[in-house]
Amino acid sequence: MNITKRLIRLIVGWFFFALGILGLFLPILQGWLFIAIATILLAQDVPFFKRIWQYVQQRFPKVARKADKITNNLEDELPG
Fold first, then answer.
1. Quick one: three-class SS letters along 15-78?
2. Helix pair angle (61-77, 31-42), 10° resolution
3. Which of 2, 28, 50, 54 to pair with 42, CA 20 to 30 A apart?
4. DSSP helix/strand/coil, 1
């Protein structure tokens, strides 16, 4: 894996996680949505999020396939 793509994914993932935490307390932001996006992005690099993502894949396989497809398309468009 290219280090640039991994770094971008980590930065964006942690940013969405921070937004998600803020969104749990602020009525304007959708906290759970941002946490879900962060989980998908960080699952490849952070073991805690990987375990959560594996649970989601087992429990909701249709949603997981759709999210994997979107994530793969986004990674193909990243520079590097």
1. HHHHHHHHHHHCCCCCHHHHHHHHHHHHCCCCHHHHHHHHHHHHHCHHHHHHHHHHHHHHHHHC
2. 70
3. 28
4. coil
Residues 6+ positions from 21 with CB-CB distance below 8 Å: 31, 35
63 in Cβ contact with 71 (< 8 Å): no
pTM for the predicted model, two decimal places: 0.80
Instruction: Give the H or E element holding residue 12.
Output: helix 3-25
**Angle 33-24-6 from CA coordinates, rounded to 5°:** 50
Residue pLDDT, tens place only, 34-70: 999 999 999 989 999 999 999 999 999 998 888 888 8
